């Protein structure tokens, strides 16, 4: 079986062709980061227009690189939600139209299911069941995963997502959008021990997160501190350490609560080096295993949507021509 996957939920246009015996055959990604940089965040209308411009050329290239004609595919998967509605409509309209033209089924995929199954694209893939920590620009959640489509949300952010907190704090430090990776880079020059940020919601039971207080704490710290690069690097270090420690504490709790030993970490923030190092330590201590997507599949991409869509199609699922985009859609 071979399918096309399309991702357009936010500011990346991702397209991929996945084959269930040969694996990933092609993968195209266009990031709109430069387009939105001047605005300090994603401008929904500009995002939709740019997806419209890029999607067909990317699909043509992905099919060409996979040496595949649309008519030879067994289905088309697209991100149905959650995300920006105008952006989602581009991928869902193009995906369903192509499926109709090629006479194959279309299937709508939950963006976060795509993220949590992304490690399945690796040669060292986790077996079910596992606990997944999903940390992206729009979501932070801990999910108990028993199998495809068997997801129990154990906890989630009650305000900002982890990536959003990175981006907002990076902005306060004068870094460009999206600031998560830039803040992480700055933190490499930071010295530990200068600042102590809180570890929100770790002093009470439960697996929910709250990251908006860290951004406020960062704003106050930056206001009262010297305005030089070393000071900013020290603040970046302390902020990052607080987010990472909080995530570690909650993961340890989720693993203990579920009695599981396998942890999957996915979404944009899973690219963070400090998170990976500290998580490795935790899993060593707990005698468990941690799995990540390859770095290029941590952030939004079409490959994870193709993979998730393939599993959905195999279980007999497909959507009709009138399937709506779902900007808000619980996992
Ligand atoms: O999964 P993703 O591409 O998009 C969403 O679905 O939201 O995640 C993007 C988020 C952004 O907030 C970005 O700043 C963050 O992931 N991010 C990072 C790193 N790389 C990306 N945050 C911290 N450290 C990184 N290395
Ligand atoms: Zn995402």
TrEMBL record:
E.C. numbers: 2.3.1.234
Described purpose of this protein according to its UniProt entry: Required for the formation of a threonylcarbamoyl group on adenosine at position 37 (t(6)A37) in tRNAs that read codons beginning with adenine. Is involved in the transfer of the threonylcarbamoyl moiety of threonylcarbamoyl-AMP (TC-AMP) to the N6 group of A37, together with TsaE and TsaB. TsaD likely plays a direct catalytic role in this reaction.
Cofactor requirement: Fe(2+)
Signal peptide: none
Pfam families: TsaD
Species: Alteromonas salexigens
Cited InterPro entries: ATPase_NBD, Gcp-like_dom, KAE1/TsaD, Peptidase_M22_CS, TsaD
Catalyzed chemical reaction(s): L-threonylcarbamoyladenylate + adenosine(37) in tRNA = N(6)-L-threonylcarbamoyladenosine(37) in tRNA + AMP + H(+)
PANTHER family (alphabetical): TRNA N6-ADENOSINE THREONYLCARBAMOYLTRANSFERASE, TRNA N6-ADENOSINE THREONYLCARBAMOYLTRANSFERASE, MITOCHONDRIAL
TM region(s), chain numbering: none
Subcellular location: Cytoplasm
GO MF annotation list: tRNA N(6)-L-threonylcarbamoyladenine synthase activity
Protein name: tRNA N6-adenosine threonylcarbamoyltransferase
Keywords, ordered alphabetically: Acyltransferase, Cytoplasm, Iron, Metal-binding, Transferase, tRNA processing
Family as reported in the entry's similarity comment: Belongs to the KAE1 / TsaD family.
Keyword tRNA processing: yes
């Amino acid at each position: 079986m071979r399918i096309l996957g399309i991702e357009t939920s936010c500011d990346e246009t991702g397209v991929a062709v996945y084959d269930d015996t040969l694996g990933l055959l092609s993968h195209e990604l266009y990031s709109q980061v430069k387009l939105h940089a001047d605005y300090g965040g994603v401008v929904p209308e500009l995002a939709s227009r740019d997806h419209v411009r890029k999607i067909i050329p990317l699909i043509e290239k992905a099919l060409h690189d996979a040496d595949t004609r649309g008519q030879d595919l067994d289905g088309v998967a697209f991100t149905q939600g959650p995300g920006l509605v105008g952006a989602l409509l581009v991928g869902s309209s193009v995906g369903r139209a192509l499926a109709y033209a090629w006479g194959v089924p279309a299937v709508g995929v939950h963006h976060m299911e795509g993220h949590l199954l992304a490690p399945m694209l690796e040669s060292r893939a986790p077996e079910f069941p596992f606990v997944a920590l999903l940390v992206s620009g729009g979501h932070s959640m801990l999910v108990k995963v028993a199998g495809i489509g068997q997801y129990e949300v154990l906890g989630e952010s009650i305000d900002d997502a982890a990536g959003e907190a990175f981006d907002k704090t990076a902005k306060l430090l004068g870094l460009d959008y999206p600031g998560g990776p830039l803040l992480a880079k700055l933190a490499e020059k930071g010295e530990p021990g200068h600042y102590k940020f809180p570890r929100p919601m770790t002093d009470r039971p439960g697996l929910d997160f709250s990251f908006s207080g860290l951004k406020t704490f960062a704003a106050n710290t930056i206001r009262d501190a010297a305005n030089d690069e070393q000071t900013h690097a020290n603040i970046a270090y302390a902020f990052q350490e607080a987010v990472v420690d909080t995530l570690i504490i909650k993961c340890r709790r989720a693993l203990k609560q579920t009695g599981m030993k396998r942890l999957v970490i996915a979404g944009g923030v899973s690219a963070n080096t400090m998170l990976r190092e500290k998580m490795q330590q935790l899993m060593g201590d707990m005698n468990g295993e941690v799995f990540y997507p390859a770095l290029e599949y941590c952030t939004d991409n079409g490959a994870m949507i193709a993979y998730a869509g393939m599993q959905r199609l195999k279980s007999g699922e497909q959507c009709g021509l009138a399937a709506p985009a779902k900007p808000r859609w619980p996992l």
